[in-house]
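Appendix B, record 7
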Amino acid sequence: MPAKSLSDLSDKMREIDIAMLMTRTDGGAIAGRPMSNNGDVEYDGDSYYFTMSDARMVADIEADPNVSLAFQGDDMFMVAVQGKGEIVRDKAAFEDHWNPDLDDWFEDGVDTEGLVMIKVSAERVHYWDGEENGEVKL
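Structure tokens (predicted):
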């Protein structure tokens, strides 16, 4: 089975904007929701997503940091990420991952009251690229 590197995957993931972020709820169910990469697609094993502090996924991650991400690109390219989620409340970190398109969702930019950033640090990345598939462990 051919093996792609994390760099190879990053090149292909660059065109994928939306990921499904899955968390475990307090009742044990798996909850998923679409999240935008916000143009922050230089994938090195960490992914960043902005949301509001009162979002259900924030409470889910604070209770259980085990999360997964699912990406689907063109030509049967798919990626599943298992990792740890972390809630970031540091404005300087927001600025490192902000882009102007986010102003459409958060009108006060990084100063939006209640804004948080979710950082997902991958531990395992499984990919399917047509008939090829493999895994990268971080």
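Remarks on this record: Strands lie at 18-24, 30-36, 46-52, 66-72, 77-88, 115-129, 132-137. The chain has a mean pLDDT of 91.
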